[in-house]
């Protein structure tokens, strides 16, 4: 049923210099969709994502009567066209869904290792672990999961016609879209790196000339792949021409993914990780993500401290956040992996009793020390290129999606003739059994590459509720920082009761056990306060930016949706009706 709504802050799509996407066919005129690169309030449906056309694609599905799952699919596919650094059909991710009756579920479409995978697969001919093989080779590519994940979500929970959800991305790829300043800069920086990957070079530059702001980016091969997905659903990716083209590229480059690997890929429905924080319900992603488990563990620890009384952005609260992070990331390194292959103690890690054991180990004003000998694990390197988007429909169904190619533009490999980039997600497996050293390499057993295992992730798509009512849909890119960015979003909402725009804009910090240093966004606190934190024993560093949290909140007083694109991303946009 289509319902009319009004919105408060409206900028017409045309005023942003953007072309509109066509909604699915309907006899009833759909309400007009507004899109802004700022906060948007609406009592209809809402999408907030990393590119305006993608937010519009989802919002138009909502306006035409589709539900939040439908809109999430349309948005995700459109991002695969407009946000090639992280939006994808050649990667994978997670979707957390909360239904209007308060129940929830999660769709796992994380990439998996090919059948030939084994724990020593990232060792070179010299017998040494090879970063190059692990992160930047055809062996770094995992079997993609995104299309299977969207197909499963649609089959189980979608409302609208599948073809109508894919059509906007067909049109965006075939007819093109306007290149933003951010995208032009990003593609410009990639031109030289793409020289070794002819299909990427051809698709993302004009014979080596970078695209400029205002240019139209056309992607004909991608449009043809999207058409196959539109017409054949999951099979349009995992069988037939698309699968053949992908497998041929693997063979050419020495990769191991075969047509059999693709045909066997299955997205999985999983029980979300559920926790509570001061009366709020926290619904997040279970393994193979570490995100939901670590988030709930940290919140349980913080629940025993007067965080609100400490106040925001000062040495005392930073110290307590860091100490909660340190302990959760130690446990992440020890225990977290694909729970279909390893015994992951999620229940214990997320229990209030475990937090009660942890809390007394935190000194009021003195840093603990991260001891590598505690566990055979540590890692510093992890990409920050992933993307998160949030969707809520008029009935209150909420969808939180984080998906990724791992590195920016993944493996840099575009499948010739198919027009989509492949991930380098195998880099999220540990490099080699027992390989742990001070530089941050990691070798614990649970997260080693094995046939069809999914690599450990930090993605933390999360939904907050209270007393049966939806409160917020949140998440972020940023490798391991994702979990801590989401922690800040929860603490800012619950403890500091900030307005939605401030929840997202407030500065963040990150600590991941090892390396044993805290990294604060510039402006998190004054340099003098940074010295106070350092005097407690923390190594303090500063960074320009942490995370990009495209979120939706529900205004507790009016019930309106408040979409907040993270101001750290100039392309982020809220679209609603
Ligand atoms: N590749 C980033 C993550 O999955 O956390």
Description:
By secondary structure, the chain is an alpha+beta fold. It has helices at 52-63, 68-82, 131-135, 146-157, 162-175, 181-190, 198-204, 220-232, 235-238, 240-253, 259-264, 291-303, 307-310, 315-335, 346-349, 352-358, 481-494, 500-505, 527-535; strands spanning 34-36, 40-42, 46-49, 92-98, 104-109, 177-178, 216-217, 268-270, 273-277, 280-284, 387-392, 398-404, 462-466, 469-474, 509-510, 518-521, 540-543, 551-554, 561-564, 573-576. The strands form 4 sheets. The protein has an 8-stranded antiparallel β-sheet with strand order 1-20-3-11-12-4-5-8, covered by helices on one side. It has a 7-stranded antiparallel β-sheet with strand order 2-19-18-14-13-10-9. A 3-stranded mixed β-sheet has the order 15-16-17. Helix 2 (68-82) packs antiparallel against helix 4 (146-157). Mean pLDDT is 93; it is low at 1-25 and 376-381. Bound molecules: glycine. Glycine (GLY) binds next to loops.
Summarize the structure.
The chain is of the alpha+beta class and 577 residues long.
Report the bound ligands by name, code or SMILES: glycine
Rough outline: globular
- Average pLDDT: 93
Q: Note the total helix count.
A: 19
Number of strands: 20
Helix content, binned percent: 25-40%
């Amino acid at each position: 049923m289509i319902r009319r709504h009004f919105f408060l802050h409206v900028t017409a799509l045309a005023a942003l210099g953007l072309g509109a996407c066509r909604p699915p066919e309907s006899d009833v005129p759909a309400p007009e969709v507004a899109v802004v690169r700022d906060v948007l309030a609406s009592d209809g449906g809402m999408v907030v994502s990393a590119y305006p056309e993608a937010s519009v694609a989802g919002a138009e599905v909502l306006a035409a009567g589709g539900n939040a799952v439908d809109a999430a699919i349309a948005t995700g596919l459109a991002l695969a066209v407009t946000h090639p650094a992280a939006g994808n059909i050649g990667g994978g991710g997670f979707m957390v869904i909360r239904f209007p009756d308060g129940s929830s579920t999660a769709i796992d479409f994380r990439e998996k290792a090919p059948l030939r995978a084994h724990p020593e697969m990232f060792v070179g001919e010299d017998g040494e672990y090879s970063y190059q093989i692990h992160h930047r080779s055809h062996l770094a590519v995992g079997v993609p999961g995104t299309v299977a994940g969207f197909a499963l979500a649609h089959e189980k929970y979608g409302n609208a016609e599948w073809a109508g959800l894919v059509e906007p991305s067909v049109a965006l790829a075939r007819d093109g879209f306007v290149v933003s300043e951010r995208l032009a800069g990003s593609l410009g920086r990639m031109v030289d790196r793409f020289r070794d990957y002819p299909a990427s070079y051809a698709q993302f530059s004009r014979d080596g000339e970078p695209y400029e702001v205002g240019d139209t980016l056309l992607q004909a091969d991608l449009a043809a792949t999207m058409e196959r997905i539109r017409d054949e659903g999951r099979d349009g990716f995992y069988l037939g021409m698309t699968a053949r083209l992908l497998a041929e590229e693997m063979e050419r480059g020495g990769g191991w993914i075969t047509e059999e690997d693709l045909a066997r890929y299955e997205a999985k429905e999983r029980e979300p990780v559920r926790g509570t924080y001061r009366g709020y319900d926290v619904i997040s992603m279970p393994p193979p993500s570490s995100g939901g488990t670590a988030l709930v563990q940290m919140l349980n620890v913080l629940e025993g401290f007067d965080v609100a009384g400490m106040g925001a952005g000062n040495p005392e609260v930073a110290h307590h956040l860091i100490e909660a992070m340190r302990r959760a990331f130690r446990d992440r390194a020890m225990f977290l992996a694909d729970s279909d292959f390893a015994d992951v103690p999620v229940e214990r890690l997320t229990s209030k009793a475990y937090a009660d054991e942890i809390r007394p180990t935190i000194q009021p004003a003195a840093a603990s020390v991260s001891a590598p000998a505690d566990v055979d694990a540590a890692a510093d390197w992890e990409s920050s290129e992933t993307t998160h988007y949030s969707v809520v429909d008029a009935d209150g169904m909420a969808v939180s999606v984080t998906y990724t190619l791992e590195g920016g533009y993944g493996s840099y490999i575009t499948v010739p003739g198919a027009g989509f980039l492949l991930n380098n997600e195998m880099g999220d497996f540990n490099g080699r059994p027992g390989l742990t050293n001070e530089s941050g390499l990691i070798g614990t057993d649970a997260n080693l590459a094995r046939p069809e295992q999914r690599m450990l992730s930090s993605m933390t798509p999360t939904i907050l509720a209270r007393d049966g009512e939806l409160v917020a849909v949140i998440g972020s890119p940023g490798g391991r920082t994702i979990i801590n960015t989401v922690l800040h979003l929860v603490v800012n909402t619950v403890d500091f009761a900030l307005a939605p725009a401030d929840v997202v804009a407030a500065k963040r910090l990150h600590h991941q056990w090892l390396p044993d240093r805290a990294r604060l966004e510039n402006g998190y606190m004054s340099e003098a306060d940074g010295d106070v934190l350092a005097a407690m024993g923390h190594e303090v560093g500063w960074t320009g930016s942490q995370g990009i949290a495209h979120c939706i909140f529900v205004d507790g007083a009016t019930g309106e949706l408040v979409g907040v694109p993270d101001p750290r991303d100039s392309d982020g946009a809220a679209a609603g009706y």
